[in-house]
Amino acid sequence: MIFVTGGAGFIGANFILDWIAATGEPVVNLDSLTYAGNLENLAALKSDPRHIFIRGDIGDSARVDKLLAEHKPRAVINFAAESHVDRSIHGPEDFIQTNVLGTFRLLESVRGYWGVLPEAEKSAFRFLHVSTDEVYGSLSADDPPFAETKAFEPNSPYSASKAASDHLVRAWHHTYGLPVLTTNCSNNYGPCQFPEKLIPLIIANALAGKPLPIYGDGMNVRDWLYVSDHCAAIREVLARGRPGETYNIGGWNEMPNLEIVHTLCTLLDELAPNSLIPRRSSLITYVKDRPGHDRRYAIDARKIERELGWRPAETFETGIRKTVAWYLGNQPWVEHVTSGAYREWVDQNYGERA
Ligand code: NAD
Ligand code: DAU
Questions:
Q1: What's the domain count of the chain?
Q2: Among the four 66, 134, 314, 335, which has the fewest Cβ within 10 Å?
């Protein structure tokens, strides 16, 4: 079996659903269920014995040591993290706690477990660390996309904490020989993404007739990838990636935020027409920019294609249509996650941008 951390979040849950469908191999899922973790994402596996959920923290070493000894996974895949840049600006400490200290403790637990495995299992074992393109910093319009050799230049508390975790993972390979793999991926979108991130936030606000907040001039560029393509890439890296290597994963799909928001408005006008707001784009509202806002990210995904044959299967047109359809068909999911603490976050983040 494999051991996944952070599997109740957006990408982790999509990964577990796709993994079990594609391989049938059981998964132990350790997740502390922060505001971003939601077992509703895994409702389809509720009575499936191939998914074992454990509520717990990656930094709880005694617990993780015990779980690894008990379940004997052949691989650990680390998705657990604080993942939202805006939250890292308001409160960086949780990011240091989980992304830096938590990853360090997890690496130590895994090293202890791996170190005493029989030789054949030891050499087949993998620790795969899921990271982000944000560690590379910000690009100008004419810079080449990020290759794996690009120096790290993280600019936000979030990206700095992820860069630190990537460095720890690298060092545990170099110093202790732990067979690690690191993936650095661009912006994901798709089902079950918490509506504090751009795409699900715009869908939720547009359906509710609320303002669609655009930070700054709306011309910041991201490279968007449909989540199931990211999950497929991780499966490939886990199966055939070379220990100690990093693999960049991206959609070959750079778009400015404003274009994303206009695309969503057009799709919603078509799929969920509202006579009171015939053109959702009329809700677009420019607000104060994110401090330190990175201008452009773009991924050079040639290494993973060359070495492992992976390329995204979805185009942005097909992926975004599926995503909008998923949110329209899962409004109870959205209502559950946008109560209580979510409203406090919206007041905090957008109140001061007005
Ligand atoms: P998310 O915020 O939706 O989910 C994170 C999950 O981790 C949640 O279920 C949360 O409960 C859990 N978690 C947090 N702290 C924990 C801890 N200390 N112990 C155990 N569980 C904990 O994040 P996501 O968007 O699914 O991202 C998953 C990973 O992928 C992160 O490492 C992120 O940096 C990386 N990533 C995300 C994107 C993206 O676009 N969302 C792109 C590239 C890389
Ligand atoms: O690049 C990968 C990263 O993508 C991941 O590592 C992060 O975990 C993930 O959250 C994401 O980070 P971003 O900061 O790029 O995502 P977010 O959805 O928060 O913002 C996308 C862009 O949209 C960014 O330029 C800021 C802008 N934005 C965002 C929000 C929430 C707005 O203009 N308005 C908004 O209300």
A1: 1
A2: 335
